[in-house]
Known about the structure:
By secondary structure, this protein is α/β, with parallel strands linked by helices. It contains nine helices and 13 strands. Strand 11 and strand 12 (305-313) form a beta hairpin. Guanine nucleotide-binding protein that plays a crucial role in the cellular response to amino acid availability through regulation of the mTORC1 signaling cascade.
Amino acid sequence: MSIQFEEPLGDGYGVVDTFPKDFGYGVEEADIEDSPAPSDSKPRILLMGLRRSGKSSIQKVVFHKMSPNETLFLESTNKIYKDDISNSSFVNFHIWDFPGQVDFFDPTFDYEMIFRGTGALIFVIDAQDDYVEALGRLHLTVSRAYRVNPEINFEVFIHKVDGLSDDHKIETQRDIHQRANDDLADASLEKLHLSFYLTSIYDHSIFEAFSKVVQKLISQLPTLENLLNIFISNSGIEKAFLFDVVSKIYIATDSSPVDMQSYELCCDMIDVVIDVSCIYGLKEDGSGSAYDKESMAIIKLNNTTVLYLKEVTKFLALVCILREESFERKGMALWAPLLSYFI
């Protein structure tokens, strides 16, 4: 389905719960005993942190299109939940959500098996709470995991920062960063690297942070980045993203810096395209897909900016930002099939 918009979009336009129920990710599985063996080829991402730090809310908002306000009614996680994210050849992994009360010293907890098959460990810290206990748990968790599997990517989400002022955000990040790294230095673990992100489920920061985490697990990332660099250098495009449509995680972008406003525009465009396709793109009996090989959209904003979206694969979209004068170069549309060939 091809869509073209020329009306200006107002500031703050956003759609949260836009995907049809059958367009999401796989069924959530509740028991660790039902999980595959550690030899499973899919990377594993662990979500850890203290109780009520926001782990389950993050998972539901990013991968199950839950409205942030709905997460207020989620019950606290009391056992390990596994989510099989396998709708895309790139965003293709397991997410394990751990309850905050996990005891690494419990003999029934086989942490070596879990950490051995892990690609990334995300530790969530509630920035609005006293995080001294969280820092202690962070140190225990990453030090144990590192000794089992030093190849794990360790990510720290300083979460719920929507309630903090900009100065408080910066100070909190600096303090957590300093304390966490001091603890590692005291334990002679200077080689263990922690990455820190300020996140909230009420804006796009959580999607961008998860994008950075997922990109580290994609072996094809250098090739995709190089391809996008060639693309923008030959087309007059200012910024290009390769998105996983369902989660709005961008699995690759060109080498120019990513600013939050551009990323938000591209996320909003995906929401608009899916919303309109669900209304006008399906057959009369409701069959069909809201996103398929015919999906393409052009949105012209009132500041001479053009947003361009083109289907690349069943679950991936190329989303570009360019100036209206550059848009006249029609050869741009030919690059989506070329990207598909390399993927």
